[in-house]
Automatic annotation (TrEMBL):
The lineage of its organism: Bacteria, Bacillati, Bacillota, Bacilli, Lactobacillales. Coiled coil: none annotated. Residues 37-155 form the YbaK/aminoacyl-tRNA synthetase-associated domain. This is Cys-tRNA(Pro)/Cys-tRNA(Cys) deacylase. SUPFAM superfamilies: YbaK/ProRS associated domain (SSF55826). Signal peptide: none annotated. Keywords: Lyase, Protein biosynthesis. GO terms for molecular function: aminoacyl-tRNA deacylase activity; lyase activity. It comes from Liquorilactobacillus hordei DSM 19519. InterPro entries: Prolyl-tRNA_editing_YbaK/EbsC (IPR004369), YbaK/aa-tRNA-synt-asso_dom_sf (IPR036754), YbaK/aa-tRNA-synth-assoc-dom (IPR007214). Belongs to the prolyl-tRNA editing family. YbaK/EbsC subfamily. It is an enzyme of class 4 (lyase).
Amino acid sequence: MAKKEKIKKTNDERILDQHHVTYEEVSFNWLEKGADALSEAESVGVSAKSILKTIVLKGSDDENDYLVVCLPLEFEIDLKLIANQLNKKQVHLADNKKLINITGYVHGANTPIGINIRKGFPIYFDERIKEYDEISVSAGKIGRSVRLKQKDLVELVAGKYLQVQ
């Protein structure tokens, strides 16, 4: 009988363990598979709208004015609306080439878990995810996600809800 290969936990999964947050490890590679990944999720009973992407934004207040918005993969983000709700002159996407220096993650692996715990950036969630008990976010590695209770994640990262579109 072949040995089952044990998958090494990501740092973000360890953070969840330390905070006693229950989660399920899932493999989900939006960057490589695109819409096919959403179809795969739907085929196993996971709503595509419960799978979130993590967008890092730069505010206009100062050079370290970063914030994170998590929203379903298939939705777009309205930067003017977000800036208005947060009383900022403007917000724009953080430079993808500098993400590793800003957040500690490469593009496609950003996660609200580690960004909030390690960097202290404020985390905002699309208010439309309130209807989902469980959501999926990156586990800090491309193609790897965690599925957990939405309220547990929001509480862990002291998240707030906003209208993003």
